[in-house]
Amino acid sequence: MSGLLIKESPLMIIPSLAVKIGLSEAVILQQVHYWLKSSKHEFNGRKWIYNTYKDWQNQLTFWSESTIKRTIKKLEKDGYLISGNWNRSKMDKTKWYTIDYEKLMNLEEELMVHPAAQNEPLNAPDADMEEPVLDQAIPEITQETTAENKIPYAEIIAYLNEKTNSCYKASTQQTRNLIRKRWKEGFILEDFKRVIDQKATEWKNPQWSKYLRPETLFGTKFESYLNQRSFGSHKVREEDFDLDD
Q1: What region holds the Phage conserved hypothetical protein C-terminal domain (predicted)?
Q2: Fewest C-beta in 10 Å: which of 87, 92, 171, 175?
């Protein structure tokens, strides 16, 4: 039996991701995700890891340092990889990295709209080439896909967390579904902020503050919350909540 067949820990990637962003990019992104899961470095609500290009090359020995540098820069340019400098000394230029998981969620939903793109084959690399070659399939961009990408999930949830001192995630599917429904009904970012502001003030009592959550605020009573003229003297009742949403 050959010692070249899965004797080491394999590098695994999702083929549909490789088709969409590139094989090299998918490998790097997966490797960053692997280390982020165990990272204890958290800044601005995100986990971060740090490595030099040489450090990455020591992990991915089948690529040159220049190939890794070029791939990382492309991921940064495309917005999937976020870089920063969280070193104690600003003279230290070691780069820190995290992943824009919200952008990946949008990409995942786009692939669900166009499932055929997941079945495109990956071309085998030529022996004399430094990098694998990928036959990229560009799915049809529909009006629905474009509209979906414009929904400010992250901004809405960040505002909710700020006003209610919560830690809700913009990537949760149920939360995204609620926001998407209201957005498709014609409501805009400012409407979401107004509802959050009104209810954060009205429901600040501990008895009701548990309802300052996406499933209540962005449910079927969203429009009535938005058009509520005054909440200063309004008596809170259970009927005011989307308890069954």
Answers
A1: 156-227
A2: 92
